[in-house]
Amino acid sequence: MERQLSLVLAYYCSGHGYGHATRVSALVRQILLLNGHTAAKGFCWSVRVHIVSSAPKHIFREAIDVGAQYRNANIDPVIVQPLAYRVDRERSVVVLKAFLEAKAQILAHEMCWLKNVGADCVLSDAAFIGCLAANQIGIPSILVTNFTFDSVYSYLTSAIIDSPTEESHESHHQLHALVPDKPVPEEVLRPLVEQICTGYRCADLLLRLPGYIPIPSFFLRPPLPSSNWVDPLTNRFRDDVFASLTQSFHDQLHPSIPYPSSILSPKPKPPRQVIPIPLLVRPRSHSISTHTGRSTLLSSIGIPHYLHDPSKTKILVVSFGGQVFRRPNGSKSGSTSPTPAHSPRQSKDLSIQQGTVGREHSKLLASKLDSLRFPRIASPFNFHVHEREYALSVSDSLATASHLWIPGAPPVSKPVPMRDGAGFTTSTSSDDDTDDEVYFDAEEEIRDDDQELEEQFDALPRLLPDSTWIAIVCGVSKDQWNSTDTPDNDLPGGFYIAPRDVYMPDLTATGDVLLGKLGYGTVAECVDSCTPFVYVSRPLFIEEHGLRHLLATDGVGIELEREKYEAGDWAGAVSEAYALGKEKRDKLSMGSRQQGTIDSETAGVKVAQTVLEWANKWR
């Protein structure tokens, strides 16, 4: 009978965004799948993993299904984002201060809990309290991340101002007044950030993920504040910062923080170490690499069969967050319920003019502002302010005659109708004789000067490049889903709705282009599946500098200016991303796409083995 090497791991996962949860779930799954496998001569692994997070339990379903235990706890503050690509600096500082005021109490609770479960090692992505608690009780800890929150909070001192766009200045004026953007004084942030950085300093091993930025708790250079890392004129890392990311790890690390002297018979403190690791991504379903699997997924969303042929129909996936991150039952490649049968719906108002769009946009947003409620910090353990509690769902409808409300993002002005049916259908009928004359005069003009009109038409905002494209919108709430049956909902033609529990790695791999905000989970899945990514920048979230670099080196990323996103002018960026990504995608046969999934799985196994071997050595 094989002897067992038993390990108990506690994995602390930040509640800020689902990217942390997806990669934690992916790694924990790989760790637990090693149970029973040979660890050393005559031994096999016997591992228990506890996940600790304020993120909902269902997000970790893949890990829980193979044996992970979950505990809900507020173990980190979060950056407050009133919109998918905006940051509320002032309220973020309020949340951080509240957390740090309760830090001693939280730390004592986590130390006691770690002892009670018999934890041998702590992993963290990237909650500093886990590393601090581990050090206080004399066990090693591992950071698994591409960034840490000390640099994120420190960046709130940046002189870069995130102002409303010109396109929607009138409508965003009230929201901007509600969420002012002004730099936080460095003297206010410095003592707060130092506490976070000190917690991270307790970590012994950094498993650094791709898309990384400087980790100031490990590396001596560049130092905080992180606002000094970015050139405000270009909003890009300075040359010396980029250079520091490519330098050798030797002689650049902060020394270890020793275990407290009060610990009886302390174990040796591990020397600090940095190990680069590959992307951690959730695996795609095996069936999604086949024509049948793709068709099954699209059918489950409600897309007609005649649109399933990738040689005839191209797919834009639109995702700004809000998905339920679990694999559906059944085929494991589709959503659990389809888009309502009437979708897509044709736009009824076919005469939208640019001048009326701004006024209507303002009225829509203003009429909903009264319903916005900011959560109060009622107790020391209530720190989290999630996006959905702001203006993310200021409309219960997915679309009105003049606007499209993508979940997780500000409203998008519907562009003028398109002639070829991509997004809108034009009207050519009228009951007025005078209008008939105008119509026929216009037809004569087209014949006389078709080239000029083509150029004018090409300059108009368009959601989709042409009639060969469809769009799948993700993250739809229950209320918005139900609103698709209401008479005032006007989804553009060619737009379909994916249920919130659609398995995103499969949908991302099926899409020809993805449009959304820059976040690790989306970027990693786009890179893994070679899906081009059109992104809207989050200028005050410093992680995006590393993610942009990852897209530039290992994927395809095209930035869509915020003005163009909100004006509904997506088509140009979508076309550019598709063209840049087509060569890489064409090289991936169905078989090689499947091989990509296998490579991701193999990489995950190697990371899991690294974690177990290191934890076993230093426990």
UniProtKB/TrEMBL annotation:
Residues 327-357 are annotated as: Disordered. Residues 330-340 have a biased composition (Polar residues). It comes from the Eukaryota. Coiled coil: none annotated. InterPro entries: GHMP_kinase_L-arabinokinase. This is L-arabinokinase. The lineage of its organism: Eukaryota, Fungi, Dikarya, Basidiomycota, Agaricomycotina.
